Amino acid sequence: MPKCKINGKEVDVPQGTTIIEAFKASGQEIAHYCWHPGLSVAGVCRLCMVQIEGQPKLQIACNTEVKEGMVINNNSETVKDTVRWGLDFHLINHPLDCPICDQAGECGLQEQYMQFGKYDPEMAEHKVKKCKVVDLGPTVVLDSERCILCSRCVRFTDEVSKTHELGIFERGDRSEIGTFDGKPLNNKYSLNTVDICPVGALTSKDFRFRQRVWYLKEHNTICTGCSTGCNVKVYYNEEGCWRVKPRYNPDINGYWMCDEGRDIYKFINKKNRLQEITMTEKGVSKVFQAEELLPQLGLELKNAVQKNPESVALILTGQYSCEEYQSLLNLMVKSWGLKNVFHWVNHPESMEQFDGLLLRGDKNPNTKGLLNELDLLSLTQTWKDLEEKLHRNLIKHLIVAGPENLATFSDVKEKLKLFSSANKLIWLSAGIFEGVSSVCSQVVQIPTKTFFEKEGSYINHKGMKQRVTPGVEIVKSALSLCEFVEGLHHDNKGAHFQDMDSALVDTKLKEPLKENFFTATRGSL
Amino acid sequence: MEVKLLTEHYHRPEYRKLSGYKLYGGYQVLAKALQMEPKTIIEEVKASGLRGRGGAGFPTGMKWGFLPSNHEPRYLLCNADEGEPGTFKDRLMMEKAPHQLIEGMIISAYAIGSQKSYIYVRGEYFDSIRILREALAEAYKAGLLGKKILGSNFSHDMDVYSGAGAYICGEETGMISSLEGLKGQPKLKPPFPALQGYLKKPTIVNNVETLAAVVPIVRDGAKVYRQNGTEKSPGTKLFSVSGNVVRPGNYEVPLGLPLKELIFGICGGLKPGRKLKAVIPGGSSAPVLTAEEALRAHLDYESLAQMGTMLGSGAVIVIDDSHCMVDLLGVIAHFYHHESCGQCTPCREGTGWIDKILHSILSGQGRLQDIHLLERVSEHMMGKTICALSDAAAMPVLSFVNKFREEFEFYVREGRSKVRGVSHAQM
Amino acid sequence: MSVVKNPGSASKWYLPGITIGLVSTFSTMIKNLFGRNKMITLNYPEEKYEYGPRFKGNHILTVKKDGSLRCTACMLCATNCPAQCIKIHAAEHNDPTVEKYPISYEIDILRCVFCGYCEEACPVDAIRMGPEWQTPALSGSNFTYDIRYLAYRPNLKGGIQSRLDDEERHKVGI
């Protein structure tokens, strides 16, 4: 454990720590672009210069290991002057088109220039002109002029995604990031390059020009796109959700997330959501309020179960939180005595797949949580049993806690065809699927809350339990399963949310390393 | 006076063939070296005080001593990527005496225990590459390379690798990147090549002249080698003299020779009627010397360092009073702008900036503050990057501007050269 | 401007007060009868008062030489707007030198406080405040000005050209 002194402060760091990590650990500020904790050291931006006592030249903090007794500072005039000039070198060929740059507001160059900059540009010559709009692939656009050649994106494709699509072409100040002919940037993690780009050179086609970042608020949550459960931030404003970015969690996703997961903001937006509780009978739909419909529905179901337990079936998908499963099963199985509980697996053939980095074939956030709950109650019926029972017309009432994210369910249509032998379908889902209302003679559609609107916990493939908190209300009449249960069963209040706590491993949502200053303080203007 | 330690037989055309080389004692030193302990050879080289002839002047024996003492595979690379403007000594050595280099390399490889070596020749040296390849084929045929050299237990393979013409590949880590098949860009140090170089294995990179000089050291012993040169810079060195002298060319002289003697004695002085204005003593990256300084200078590492310049690769560029220093700096700045690899920001942007400022001065649009700006940009490029290219670009700028400021100011004020009379824009 | 004149002591009394008042009334009437062009009041709405060109009235979006919008959809005006009355939707332009442009630009003029901050925030002289100030309408929706109104309303005669030209800026290396 070497001890060193950073700007007069004693810091104790593990063996092999670089100076820049020691700076970060001790909470002191140091300018840098090319260094990224998740990538190898490139040492090319030359901004993290520090003065080490006893060494004549300034050293870069990212490639120098802390040795016992080092006395380091970065607040001497020499270092400050070097950083000021370093930033100026970055800026002399930078186009300064911040007003039309998507990164403005969360740009490393802006932030660090305000903090460490020279404020006195002396460049009077023409800037180097490069290509402004370079199509790198299906997801990413490059603006070569804005690029400061920190090589983070190149190192990402070399070291993390291991796809090697990007490279730096040409030499000197004519250098440009580019792809090889016929090999566009097209991998499942390509949008991480946009996240790690410290300037607005790489922009996501999906988010490009849609919003200015200072209009967005961020909410920490987890990605429900697959069973990895990456920690993410969802950016939203009053018009809806706009993008998803990863948050650092060393146990789950590190610094990265996949491109698929970045699409989860789409299904939680209002226009893709089921809006009202409706009951369709013989082709006539009627909108209900939860308070009027649910108690009546609860009574009906309860009577049906108690009369003949075989006539009611509950189908669950792995898309809901542990608390929701608990309250639903508590009511229906424990107190009513329901036996028919089935697990709807959306991709049975690819459930166990894993691409080696983050992406898993199980496209549900909480399969593990669901299986745990089913095990606890020894509910072991398989999908085959359901099919058989439906064919034999045993089941009259079907309650389906269906897909939250319809994009991951490719089999809804055939499943609905199967359900059509029941008399009454209670369809709980967040999204709109055409034709649900005409499946059975009586269909009740209930909009559910998505992970972004409710509190609950999800258990990922590793068995780690992660809690999410509600961000913002998107659909007013949407219910979580807990609220649905509460509505069905009015005399049993209180048995949900807070008091249902975990017996499993609990990891708290980690705080992000650095809050986005602008969205954190300014919010929506 | 010239001392022909390496270049003794260079005038003989047969010397470039194996048979001719053997006539004058070729490969006898190798046979002797293979009888010695590798450690003894390293000690001998250390004792000789041989310093790297590529530019930095780092003691060769000490460099060899940095290798880890395990049995990992290690590489010897010969740096024949002679890119420094003004230098043309390695080319002469490779074309006149390829076997001398090969013999030196086999001895060095034996000393450091390397099984494989590469000669990295700059891409434009077509002849050198061809001649070296022929010489290698001859050496393999004669059993001087390959398995069990000359009946000893030592095996060694050697290859010639052609660069693609980048100046930066003359930097040792840049050269290693290029050899590895990557873009020729210097690597971060640490780790140093002696510990992690080519293919992440211990690697020694030496200049052509350094490796060739191992031959006379092993042949005659360190003591004899030290008879030439000074205490701290022993031995002889090839100097490539170019510019406004009567007899430009390569000359092997002992280190410590007065620069005056090289220019006015050996090279025959300047053309009649011309006056010495400046001398760049070590290739374009070395700070320039004024005429007065040049007449005092001695050609060894220490005394030139004392004068604020460096011996570099031994490219002496003599400039007489018919040349405009602004023009010259413009050419040098353009060269470094073109050759910067673009990795580190200060160098990538700084070399371009300097080039652009000089261009606007040369086209008559300079401002007086540009001269000060040139200095400030150069100062902030010095020592801030991975390799020394940004220093190499900044040092001439600083020295030219400092020592010939009135020429620059004249150019800016009048929009024309003090020497030529007209500006680029008018030409 | 309201000027309070100190009435003389005579006007404290009833008859002198009335007389002074009537003198003022009739003298103005006679002046107006014989010098109609010097009359201060206007017969609005038949007659309208033209303000100076620097008056901060209704917004104008400027255009480029080719008649397309100058606006780059940077949203600095919307950000700077204290009344939050500007709504912009940006999109990618087909021409790579233009890059970003607004597909919709709406100003809710009823919320606008005519402070002129949008004009000041604009980095490319794309929005100006013009001398128009009287734009009554019958329906509420007419008070949300869109691009067609802001840039190409008939009295702008094909649009006001911006001072800043991208091509010239590129030429000088900005």
Protein model, in words:
The complex is a heterotrimer of chains A (525), B (427) and C (174). With 525 residues, chain A is of the alpha/beta class. Chain A is built from 13 helices and 23 strands. Chain A folds into 3 domains: 89 residues, Ubiquitin-like (UB roll) (Roll); 86 residues, Alpha-Beta Plaits (2-Layer Sandwich); 237 residues, Rossmann fold (3-Layer(aba) Sandwich). In chain A, the strands form 6 sheets. Chain A has a 7-stranded mixed beta sheet with strand order 15-14-20-19-18-16-17, covered by helices on one side. In chain A, α2 runs antiparallel to α3, α7 crosses α12 and α8 packs parallel to α12. The radius of gyration of chain A is 27 Å and the shape is elongated. The two termini of chain A are 47 Å apart. In chain B, the strands form 3 sheets. Chain B has a 5-stranded mixed beta sheet. Chain B has a 4-stranded parallel beta sheet with strand order 3-2-1-4, sandwiched between helices. Chain B has 3 domains: 213 residues, NADH-ubiquinone oxidoreductase 51kDa subunit (Rossmann fold, 3-Layer(aba) Sandwich), CATH 3.40.50; 85 residues, Ubiquitin-like (UB roll) (Roll); 90 residues, de novo design (two linked rop proteins) (Up-down Bundle), CATH 1.20.1440. In chain B, β8 and β9 form a beta hairpin. The mean pLDDT of chain B is 93. In chain B, α2 runs parallel beside α6, α14 runs antiparallel to α15 and α14 packs antiparallel against α17. With 174 residues, chain C is α+β, with helices and mostly antiparallel strands. Chain C contains 5 helices and 5 strands. In chain C, the strands form 2 sheets. Chain C has a 3-stranded antiparallel beta sheet. Chain C has a two-stranded antiparallel ribbon with strand order 1-4. Chains in contact: A-B, A-C.
